[in-house]
Specification:
Blueprint: H1 2-35, H2 73-83
Length: 84
């Protein structure tokens, strides 16, 4: 229980730093990805992050393909075989 309290306190005291590091990481990765296509991006973050409770991720539908689904060709057959 003590470790959980300590972890909670560390998160609370370092939240701003974690958020800053996460934003820099997102910017670097997005810039690198877009550079592959010759696109330059500029990220503009909101001043404040709204306080919202974390919601549980919805359960994926069974045997659902990610959207957009691949509907033809070899990859469609590979994916269909994987889920069946």
């Amino acid at each position: 229980m003590r470790a959980q309290v300590q972890a909670s306190e560390l998160f609370r005291t370092n939240d701003d730093r974690y958020l800053g590091e996460a934003r820099l990481s997102v910017e670097r990765h997005l810039a690198a990805l877009m550079d592959l296509f010759g696109v330059t991006v500029e990220v503009s973050w909101a001043e404040a992050v709204p306080e919202r409770p974390l919601a549980a991720a919805p359960e994926p539908a069974p045997h659902a393909l990610p959207s957009p689904a691949i509907t033809g060709g070899r990859m469609a057959r590979v994916l269909a075989a994987a889920v069946n």
